[in-house]
Amino acid sequence: MDPVPAADGRVDRERLDELLALQTEFDGLDFKQERSLAKGTKGRLEFVKDCAAMLSRPQGGYLVIGVDGAGVPSGAAIEAADYDASRLHDLLTKHLEGQVSVSSSVHTVDGNTVVLVCLRRRDDGLFPVVKADFVANDGGTPTIVLRGGDVYVREGTKTRKWRSADLSGLIAPHVAMVRQEERARLAELMDALRREYQGLALAAGPAAALTWQIGQEQFDTAVTEAIRRSDTSALRLLVLGLQRDGLGLLTQGAAAAGEDLLQLLDRATAVAAIAVTLSNEQLADDVVTMLTRLYHRLYVNGEALTNTAADRGLAIAARILAVIALAVRLDQWWVIRKLALRPAGDTIVYVSWLRHAQVQAARRHVVLTNTAAEPVGGGLVAAARQLISTLPALRPDLPGHLVDDLPLGTPPAPGDPVIDSVCQADLLWCVAAALDTPPQRTRYQFYPSFAWLYEHRIAPMVHRLRTDENLTKDVYPGRAIDEVRRALDEVLELAAQEGGRLGHFW
Q: Buried b vs exposed e over 135-148: b needs ≥16 C-beta within 10 Å?
């Protein structure tokens, strides 16, 4: 059994002493009295061979330069700078194809210079191949030392070219890695199928079995299947259960309800999103009506008496905006007014509960914060963007790499379809609120959170509202085109003012 430790990148004195104590070479340990690395020399290319052979071993290996065959320092003159790790990496990658992982360190042992070089196997489990023919000129006559396509292996304490019998051992690490990845992929697939089956079983079982307390994936599957089966009874009972349990949690107070309330809101948001995706207007209306009842329960005479109540109200508003953003990406224009224009308030009645939530949060000085508890700008837009990254039902149309892991405060990419759709959703509800409010009250009925970002986020939707009369009629049915354009101008005017206040101009 080879007692040489696996090459793990360590080249410290402790590892060197451990290797020298073996007092002999092994398959994974090569002692060299000296090795010239001068350019154009045979020694330089022979060094590449030795490294290639170690890189081909499953566990990698070590070269120790400046010692005899028993690991005793030889006192040979060694140019320490030649063995700098970055230089070695450049040398090896010049001659060998593929990834190279090399580390090195120069030590003094009994007054003698000794170099320890560690060579790790490639991360993908493959082995190095010589790139091309390389010639040494130090013998007077140019001699090919390395030939393109050659692979080097260790046989005992010697380095040699590979033979066909070596192939299985060379590819074994790569094969093992592929098998491990496939096992992991299969386990993930089986887990997904198991959750899918559980969701289907819930949808096919008793109507009361469809409840918000199950896992998010199972829940989404069960709701989707219930819609597909037109199981209105199960869906009706689900919405009533969400309302009953939500009101029950709120009797404890918004603070006491805590994470349970947020989970319930996530499930209700998923129902609304799936209903929008599948164009089920009745279910969307039912679940949003249920959410408005929970929303009004947070306030006393339309006012938030605690920061937690204002925060939960803002959480509901952000979820509604996230669903509207989904509708924007799917061209489900019936959603805009149905979700946004829910009146809220007492002394001042706002035509949109989204604006009411913003005002109540501002009065209680409730602001969004990131994981470091630092304030984050963007208001509803930022909150909705983050929600879309956490709830799969809000993004059935987008690949995961565009939306995964979008914590609050993460700068959006220039072409981020998530933030673009949220900004455009924000624009559309503001215009809807402006249209449904007498002119003297318009300023109090909407706030363009999209003003935190640059104008290009909403520019495509602005252009469509100005030029596409069919779209305008779909989004704002019964409204004259001129009315819509005047409302749009009012929203953009306020957004320009806010953009200037926030430090960028439209």
A: ebeeeeeeeebbee
